[in-house]
Specification:
Helix content is 40%, strand content 14%. The chain is of the alpha/beta class and 369 residues long. It binds alpha-D-galactopyranose.
């Protein structure tokens, strides 16, 4: 080989090495603070996006299943369980020594209709639905006992005004369905951490309703370990003070806090929409999708500033904050590209579509240097 070619190759090799070596690892940087999690799709776990899989394994020490442990995935028909994808997810987590979160046992979405109906298609009775809940929680939790360390037992049970959502769970069983779910979960695995998970808990009315309700269960002796705020946020909402209120209120009732599904949307929000009610879908409009050709530098900088602000708050509350989980590995894969409007180009995560760490990544790393 010619000397010049050899020199060129050596320089390239050193460059590539320097590049990979110079990317810090979130899980190491935040090691003494809280777990850094992510919520991979089955597509990634199966190895269809090798680079995403590498980022997932290298940067994180916790995982939550994006979809594969939801009722419709693991328990699509009465008496029929399908654990193939969930098993794959668990195996990946164990192999990479990760803190594994089960998501989610009781939710009104992504739950088949038959759950809420009896064998004749009529509305299920309270007793019938409690029995189904018990059978489902017992089967799923038992399978992963000792492997899944924490469960989102109930997801999204409150309305924005702090009252209980009139979901099929609430309508059929009654207001005590949350209590019953936590009691069953604790009976199945007394060592697992049990979480109540929801969005928009930074907003006063919803948070106060939720905290009051959870506190009443704690007073009755029900075991609940943590409250998870999903963290599907944007550049202006929630305000930093509102995030602080969430931590303060969780602290007051003596529970741990988790940020369970973090992403920060950069796109315009002409609907003033917040949260993650997956039944919402707005019509596309061009002014709400301005960055199809790339994210302007100034917006990326603002995005990084917002990430730094929220992570400064996370660090302040590290004594009660166990985990921060991102909802997606890189921008190209984020659900925010299709929610609450289909077909947009959003940039809510720390890694871009070329799998490179963004300014937001470095902005949070810089906080702990
Ligand atoms: C909610 C749920 C998640 C997921 C997101 C959208 O936040 O908790 O499981 O479905 O919506 O991806």
């Amino acid at each position: 080989m010619k000397k010049s070619v050899l020199l060129f190759l050596t320089i390239m090799f050193i460059n590539i090495q320097a590049q990979t070596e110079s990317i810090p690892l979130l899980k190491d940087v935040f090691k003494d603070k809280f777990y850094i999690g992510n919520a991979p799709s089955d597509y990634i776990i199966k190895g269809n996006d090798q680079k995403a899989l590498e980022i997932l394994a290298e940067q994180h020490n916790s995982i939550t299943a994006e979809n594969v442990m939801k009722w419709e995935s693991v328990h699509p028909q009465p008496g029929k369980y399908n654990f193939e994808a969930a098993d794959r997810f668990i195996e990946f987590g164990l192999k990479n020594d990760m803190y594994i979160i089960g998501h989610t046992l009781v939710w009104h979405s992504q739950t088949p209709r038959w759950v809420f109906q009896d064998a004749n298609g009529n509305p299920e009775t309270r007793e019938g639905l409690i029995a189904k809940m018990e059978e489902h929680i017992t089967t799923v939790m038992s399978r992963y006992k000792g492997k899944v360390k924490a469960w989102d037992v109930v997801n999204e049970a409150f309305n924005e005004d702090g009252t209980l959502r009139s979901s099929p769970w609430q309508k059929i069983i009654g207001d005590d369905f949350i209590k019953i779910a936590f009691q069953i979960a604790n009976k199945v695995d007394a060592d697992a951490k049990l979480i109540y998970n929801d969005y928009n808990l930074c907003f006063k009315a919803k948070r106060e309703g939720c905290i009051k309700y959870i506190k009443s269960l704690l007073d009755e002796g029900v075991k609940i370990d943590a409250i998870g705020e999903q963290g599907h946020w944007d550049m202006v909402s929630p305000k930093n003070e509102e995030i602080v209120c969430f931590f303060e209120d969780v602290k007051k009732i003596g529970l741990k806090a988790m940020i369970t599904e973090l992403d920060i949307n950069v796109l315009p929000n002409p609907w003033n929409f917040t949260g993650a009610d997956v039944s919402v879908n707005f019509a596309a409009r061009p002014d709400a999708n301005p960055y199809t050709e790339g994210l302007p530098d100034s917006v990326e900088t603002k995005h990084a500033e917002k990430y730094a602000e929220v992570f400064s708050i996370f660090l302040e509350y590290q004594d009660i904050l166990d985990r921060v989980t991102f909802w997606g590995v890189h921008d190209g894969h984020s659900w925010k590209n299709n929610f609450p409007v289909r077909g947009r180009t959003d940039y809510p995560l720390l890694f871009d579509r070329q799998y490179q760490p963004k300014k937001a990544f470095y902005s949070i790393i810089d906080l702990v240097k």
